[in-house]
Amino acid sequence: MKSLFSIAIIIGLTSCASHQAKEVYTAFDDVFIPTRSRSKNTNGTLRAMLDEQDRLILQKTSPSTLEKIEEGDPLFLDDVIALYQGGISDDVIIQYIHHTRSSYRLSHEQIRKLKNAGISEKLINYMIDTGR
């Protein structure tokens, strides 16, 4: 009986370990991110993407977006728009999205919102590709 119980525990622990290795996705309004990507280990890299002038602009125009960047959190559509309209390049925004492993599932309405805000096709296409 004891050995049968021990085997059941080992199987249960092995099963739990394999579930932990899988990425679990958390849904937000317009972005899905793997929960493992929330690790703040990449903070230094992400902070380095913005120079001091970019930080000052964001501090004035969108402090909540700057806070997300400082924390390594995913960007929502309004954050992407704030960054782009604040003069942050496509490449820097794409690099940030890549580092946070964000995945966007954009509706036609959300794509239209990005286009109306002047977001480049390059950035929109990158965001669409993350959801595939």
Helices and strands, with pairings:
Elements: H1 2-21, E1 25-27, E2 32-34, H2 43-47, H3 52-61, H4 63-71, H5 77-85, H6 90-99, H7 108-116, H8 121-130
Antiparallel strand pairs: 1-2
Helix pairs in contact: 3-4, 6-8
Return residue spans where pLDDT drops below 50 for at least 5 consecutive residues: 4-28, 33-43
Going by helix content, strand content and strand pairing, the class is: mainly alpha
SS field, number of helical segments:
8
Whole-Å distance between the termini?
A: 49 Å
Helix content: 55-70%
The arrangement of helices and strands along the chain is HEEHHHHHHH
Number of strands: 2
Mean pLDDT: 75
| Oligomer class | single chain
Anisotropy-based shape = globular
Radius of gyration, rounded? Answer: 19 Å
Sheet-strand content, in percent, reads under 5%
Q: Which sequence of strands runs across the widest sheet?
A: 1-2
Most strands sheet = 2 strands, antiparallel
Number of discrete domains:
1
Please supply descriptive tags for the structure shown above.
globular, about 130 residues, 2 strands, mainly alpha, two-stranded antiparallel sheet, 8 helices
Short description:
By secondary structure, the chain is mainly alpha-helical. The chain has eight helices and two strands. The chain has a two-stranded antiparallel ribbon.
